[in-house]
Amino acid sequence: MEINDAANLFAQYLLVEKGLSKKTVDAYLTDLKLFFKYFKDKKDTEDLNPYDINSFMLYGASLGRKPSTTLRRAASIKHFYLFLKKDGYYNDEIPEIEGPKKEKILPTYLSVEEVERLLDAPNMKSPSGIRDKAMLELMYASGLRVSELLELEKANINLKKGIVIVFGKGAKERKVPMGDFALEYVVKYINQVRGKFHGADSKYLFLNKKGKPLSRVYFFKQIRKYASEVGIEKEISPHTLRHCFATHLLEGGAQLRTVQEMLGHANIATTQIYTHVSKDRIISAYDLFINKK
Question: For residues 102, 277, 146 and 144, what is the CA-based torsion angle, rounded to 10 degrees?
Answer without folding.
Answer: 110
